[in-house]
Specification:
The chain has 2 domains: about 100 residues; about 350 residues, Na+/H+ antiporter like fold (Up-down Bundle), CATH 1.20.1530. By secondary structure, it is mainly α. A two-stranded antiparallel sheet has the order 1-2. The chain is about 75% helix and about 5% strand. The chain is built from 20 helices and 2 strands.
Length: about 475
């Protein structure tokens, strides 16, 4: 009965969003060239109409994909691609030009930057540092395999296709390393949702996969910070890296204790703390941009030093999450979609072969690297395969990396398209791959197996404990 009620609610949501999207499309058609003259449309109204269409299309497709047992983010990414030159630009070019003129695209992109900073802040807040320390041995093995193999294989693909995917302004090694790092990313928030949907949240395999994804992303973002500094985005690479090191030192030595003191001061009032934290977050991201790093790195670093045990901090994060995920992230998907054209692959045989190679390396690198390393860490074969399959999820985090590289001219439009398609395909494949591998060993009903791997490298022992598998929210 509960499942039937949930299905009816989802179906009603899909129909409601479809009707609203259709209504806005009719308004757009009547106002498009041939209807109301373009110069008579108020620019504020056009921006608001564009945002309304973006939100409705992204959430409509997100609800539809959720009904098909896919993460909502897959549909939201598809919504962004649908509004770009890949679909809308082909089906209705004049309508796309009217709905997304240059000035509207600029404002949408700026709003998307705000969403990215908040999203990366939340990602930094959720990084399970304590679990990483507790499972140091197993996490080290899995991170080395699941991050290292895709990085090396992705760099090899980028080197082979350098002329097609390289950006216009940097030496070849920077393009190659960036592309490899982009292929080594795992999306922690999307993975957490997939674990809940597959009832693996809270199980040993699910917890290990989530911890390794977070640790691997931390390593990848640190490497990306160095790479962005070397790219000379802020001027002299040596000065940029020196300033970045000073920023990290100030974050740990000054920002972290100040945040702890502020949260103790406003422990009873999240409403009072929210504007202070948001102002600090945006200011910190702005400083990171001035230093020569990408602002998302500033948001991630600010989130890393947030106190983990505070109730009021958790409430502030909840307030930010609702607005960022519902409103700002779809704008980011649209901004990515407006710069992504599947037509860049077109009729070029080398580009299609490159796309196939990227997808094979992305899926195979995570699966082989993650599963092999988990097996070496002492997990049984099926559980090791589950870890490798789960770490295939790229999701939003991959798009953030791709967008940053595109802005810094580290990848070409074709390179951006390949990374976006790779993020979409690997995220959609994660659930089916996990179902294909089958349930983790020892998990039958409410029973889970806890693996304890000693730092000395001794074989893992299995201790059966009674836990309740995570349920889908």
């Amino acid at each position: 009965m509960r499942r039937w009620t949930r299905w009816r609610w989802r179906r009603g949501t899909v129909w409601t969003l479809a009707v609203l999207t259709g209504s806005l499309t009719v308004v757009a058609i009547r106002s498009a060239p041939g209807g109301v003259p373009l110069q008579l449309i108020d620019p504020v109204a056009r921006f608001l109409l564009a945002v309304a269409v973006i939100l409705l299309v992204c959430h409509l497709l997100g609800a539809a994909l959720a009904a098909l047992r896919q993460p909502r983010v897959v549909g939201e990414i598809l919504g962004g691609l649908l509004l770009g030159p890949s679909v809308l630009g082909v089906v209705w070019a004049s309508g796309r030009d009217w709905l997304f003129p240059a000035e509207v695209v600029t404002v949408v992109r700026l709003a998307a930057e705000l969403g990215l900073v908040v999203f990366m802040f939340l990602l930094g807040c959720e990084l399970p540092l304590r679990q990483v320390r507790q499972r140091r041995a197993a996490v080290t093995w899995v991170v080395a395999g699941a991050t290292g193999l895709p990085l090396l294989a992705g760099a090899g693909v980028a080197w082979a296709g350098h002329e097609l995917i390289a950006g216009p302004a940097h030496p070849a090694p920077l393009h190659v390393i960036f592309f490899g790092l982009a292929m080594s990313i795992t999306a922690v928030p999307v993975l957490a949702r997939i674990l809940a949907d597959l009832r693996l949240a809270g199980t040993p395999v699910g917890t290990l996969a989530l911890t390794c994804a977070a640790a691997g992303d931390g390593v990848s973002w640190a490497a990306l910070a160095i790479l962005f500094g070397l790219s000379g985005a802020g001027g002299d690479p040596v000065v940029t890296i020196a300033l970045a090191v000073a920023l990290v030192a100030a974050t740990v030595g000054i920002v972290r204790p100040v945040l702890a003191a502020l949260i103790r001061r406003w422990e009873a009032s999240a409403a009072s703390l929210l504007p202070v934290l948001v102002a600090g977050l945006l200011g910190f991201a702005g400083v990171a941009q001035l230093v020569g790093l990408h602002p998302v790195l500033g948001g991630f670093l600010f989130g890393l030093v947030m106190p983990r045990e505070s109730v009021v901090a958790a409430q502030v994060e909840g307030h930010l999450r609702g607005f960022a995920v519902t409103i700002l992230l779809p704008l980011f998907f649209a901004a990515i979609g407006l710069h992504t054209s599947i037509g860049t692959v077109g009729g070029s045989a080398p580009a299609w072969w490159l796309l196939v190679a990227v997808l094979l390396v992305a899926v195979g690198g995570k699966l082989v690297g993650g599963a092999g390393a988990a097996r070496l860490a002492g997990l049984p074969g099926r559980d090791a395969l589950l870890v490798g399959a789960l770490l295939n999820c790229r999701g939003v985090t991959e798009l953030v990396v791709a967008a940053a590289g595109f802005q810094l001219l580290l990848v070409s439009p074709l390179g951006l398209t390949l990374l976006v398609l790779m993020a979409l395909v690997t995220t959609a494949l994660t659930g089916p791959l996990v179902r294909l591998v089958g349930p983790a060993s020892g998990i039958t009903g409410q029973t889970a197996v806890d693996y304890r791997t000693r730092a000395s490298g001794a074989p893992a022992t299995r201790v059966v404990t009674s836990t309740r598998a995570g349920r889908s929210p």
